[in-house]
Amino acid sequence: QSALTQPRSVSGSPGQSVTISCTGTSNDFGVYNYVSWYQQHPGKAPKLMIYDVRKRPSGVPDRFSGSRSGNTASLTISGLQAEDEADYYCCSYTGSSVLFGGGTKLTVL
Amino acid sequence: QVQLQESGPGLVKPSETLSLTCTVSGYSISSGYWWGWIRQPPGKGLEWIGSIYHNANTYNNPSLQSRGTISINTSKNQFSLKLTSVTAADTAVYYCARDGGSYDFCNWGQGTLVTVSS
After folding, report:
1. CB within 8 A of A4, min separation 6: which ones?
2. Which positions in chain A have a beta carbon within 8 angstroms of at least one beta carbon in chain B?
3. B95 inside 8 A of chain A by CB
4. pLDDT, tens digit, for every residue of A28-48?
């Protein structure tokens, strides 16, 4: 079972928007909308940013938004801030197991 | 506030069994939710290992080929991971986490580095 495909890196300037894609097969996402996104700063545990494709846990800024079209899920970060620089991972429930993406390093220029 | 804390040996010899425990505070694991183990090799991405429910039902990553076993001890508010026949490829930071109900991991432990080496 291969990881979901994410770009290795993306970048943007403060105030701009960036979108991170997460691509898999129909089997990787199943018939469910259980897609989540995690932010991980160096040396820290991951933090849940988006669940159920587009829902934000309490405390996560509304600058973070999620979407899904077919076998591609996306995380969009608008109004980039320096503290958004981190690794981001997508995650899906396949119907029988949980699958993470390979991760994307976001650089804020 | 749910808090999780991993514990266990930081060094395991090749071919031996890796054993870790996650102690949960701020929530009684017998009340519900799934609880999971995720690992991250140095410099690499996240890999889900498996998850367990309070009634001891489990589901595991098939790529581990049945080497992983997750158990739960509700009286101690802990759940555990055993990974057999380890190799250097099992060297990773191991995290325990709570599944919020949508196969999303909403609370994480700080992680513990396990190195497989002789």
Report:
1. A22, A23, A24, A28, A90, A91, A92, A99, A100, A101, A102
2. 1, 3, 32, 34, 36, 38, 45-48, 51-52, 57, 89, 91-93, 96-103
3. yes
4. 887 889 999 999 999 999 999
